[in-house]
Design goal:
This protein is mainly α and 151 residues long. It has helices at residues 30-35, 37-54, 57-60, 62-72, 100-112, 121-150, and strands at residues 11-12, 77-80, 85-88. Strand 2 (77-80) and strand 3 form a beta hairpin. Helix 2 (37-54) packs across helix 4.
């Protein structure tokens, strides 16, 4: 015997970012994603930049950024109730979802140019420490691989 819990309707959250309506609707077919990665990356970068400039919490949190990018692409519908948020993605739109890693890398490449940096100093410091750590790791790996080649 299963217990069914009724789902209450929640109000629709409407937050229009600066210029969202002016961005061209992306056509993200499989051919476009696989055959021309650079073109797709530029499209993502455009939307990521728009979201980061219009909504500060997205600069500090990649999950917020990803959800807002999905909303900008009209792939996600967000509603809120008294105590919760409900995110809906249409089944037929799942194949068009961008990879979260692509969105993060778009944000990271903008940050590397000094654009759309985090507004929270703790987040900025943490990202800088992680970047240094990753660079040191790969520098050690490179030295170790050269040493192994010499042997």
């Amino acid at each position: 015997m299963s217990i069914e819990i009724p789902i209450k309707e929640t109000e629709i959250v409407e937050r229009k970012g600066v210029g969202y309506n002016q961005l061209p609707k992306l056509e993200l077919s499989n051919e476009d994603l696989f055959s021309d990665f650079e073109k797709s990356h530029k499209k993502y970068k455009l939307i990521v930049k728009e979201v980061l400039e219009s909504w500060n919490p997205a600069t500090n949190n990649d999950l917020f950024l990803y959800l807002e990018v999905l909303r900008a692409l009209d792939l996600l519908q967000a509603t809120s109730g008294k105590d919760n948020f409900v995110f809906k993605i249409k089944r037929e739109d799942i194949k068009f979802l961008p990879c979260p890693e692509s969105i993060r890398r778009s944000r990271q490449s903008l940050n590397a140019k000094g654009l759309c940096l985090p507004t929270d100093p703790r987040v900025l410091e943490l990202r800088k420490r992680r970047e240094t750590s990753v660079r040191n790791y790969f520098a050690r790996e490179k030295i170790q691989s050269k040493a192994n080649l010499i042997k």
